[in-house]
Design brief:
It is a single chain. By secondary structure, this protein is α/β, with parallel strands linked by helices. Helix content is 26%, strand content 24%. The chain is built from nine helices and 15 strands. Strand 11, helix 6 and strand 12 form a beta-alpha-beta unit. Helix 2 packs across helix 3 and helix 2 packs across helix 8. It is globular, with a radius of gyration of 21 Å. The chain starts with a strand and ends with a strand.
Length: 341
């Protein structure tokens, strides 16, 4: 690629089950020219998140699917390279939703100015960005942890789960994490300070989880579903709250009759018998009311050493598809970010 070209990755085909590299296509085009009122963004960091798998599907969901041949969606940290908008200056560092490409145009309405002196700009895509706010809003609004509660979170080493457990502890609850593999479990326990962490790959996973939750589970933050839900469900206390954020165990499911476990009858039984609160959510539901509070509190918690994070940095936009495929299989360790420049 030369300086006169824009590198971008588009959706080439809709996946059937696990995404394949052939479902993506790298393209090169002329760098777009901003019209009056627009700015040209140079993306520096790209966020990779599990929700993107849903956007690759044509199935009805909370957002429109990415069209075949369209640029893959995603949050970015960008620098304004050229401005024809009086509200934005060249050189401003911004949070955008510019997708899997090096350069993009914006009318400025979807941008958030970042502190030019921020030591780690990529945190605007993680602990101080959408994943962090997802954890904050879902846990506090739906989970409503109280001091002494047991809060269990799946994918506890990930961008959302890691923040959920730490906020639970800040609020006086007991945090139990579920992660995959000894290295991730050690990080959750020793670096993030969870009270306990269980490896979902262990042969006796369900037994270990029960032992880690002797008083049952008051809040379960769902990121995974599948076999993890099977172990969690019997431990839920009466009136437990379950924010449903993700179902990563099923994102690559194929629609093959008879191959999926039917968990609905047992789940519905417990919702009724235990008076459970189960609510799915998208973080944008809470942005207008809570985002300012989140940014203020999270920044304070970071300064106080109460909120920590880990990033998994991939170099080069051309490596985004393989990194994204690996994320759906648990290969990343921390918030997955592509460094573009």
């Amino acid at each position: 690629m030369t300086q006169l070209q824009n590198q971008r990755i588009v959706l080439a085909a809709r996946p059937d089950g696990r995404p394949q590299p052939s479902d993506f296509r790298v393209e090169y085009s002329a760098i777009p020219v901003p019209a009056e009122g627009e700015v040209l963004l140079e993306n520096l960091y790209l966020s990779l998140d599990p929700y993107m798998r849903w956007r690759m599907s044509a199935a009805k969901s909370y957002a429109e699917p990415v069209g075949i041949g369209e640029v893959m969606v995603g949050g970015t940290v960008a620098r304004i390279k050229h401005s024809r908008n009086p509200l934005w200056q060249e050189g401003d560092m911004v949070l955008a939703y510019a997708g899997w490409q090096r350069f993009a145009l914006s009318d400025g309405l979807d941008l958030r100015l970042l502190d030019p002196g921020i030591a780690h700009p990529s945190t605007a895509l993680g602990v101080l960005g959408m994943p962090g706010f997802t954890a904050y809003s879902g846990l506090l609004t739906i989970g409503q942890p109280k001091p002494g509660d047991t809060v269990v979170v799946a994918a506890a080493s990930g961008a959302v789960g890691s923040v959920v457990g730490q906020i639970a502890r800040i609020k006086g609850a007991r945090a139990v994490g579920i992660a995959g593999g000894p290295e991730k479990c050690a990080f959750v326990k020793n670096e993030l300070g969870f009270d306990a962490v269980i490896d979902h790959r262990a042969a006796d996973f369900a037994q270990q989880l029960a032992e880690a939750c002797p008083n049952g589970i008051d809040v379960y933050f769902e990121n995974v579903s599948g076999a993890v839900w099977d172990a969690v469900r019997p431990l839920l206390n009466d009136f437990a709250r379950i924010p449903v954020c993700g179902l990563i165990a099923h994102y690559n499911d194929r629609s093959v009759p008879g191959q999926q476990v039917d968990r609905l009858p047992a789940t519905m039984h417990d919702i009724l018998a235990k008076s459970l609160t189960v609510r799915g959510f998208i973080q944008t539901e809470f942005v207008d009311e809570q985002q300012d509070d989140f940014l203020q509190e999270a920044a304070q918690w970071i300064d106080q050493g109460k909120l920590k994070w880990r990033e998994d940095i991939v170099e080069g936009l051309e490596n985004a598809p393989e990194a994204f495929i690996g994320q759906l299989e648990g290969r990343n360790f921390g918030k997955l970010i592509v460094r573009l420049a």
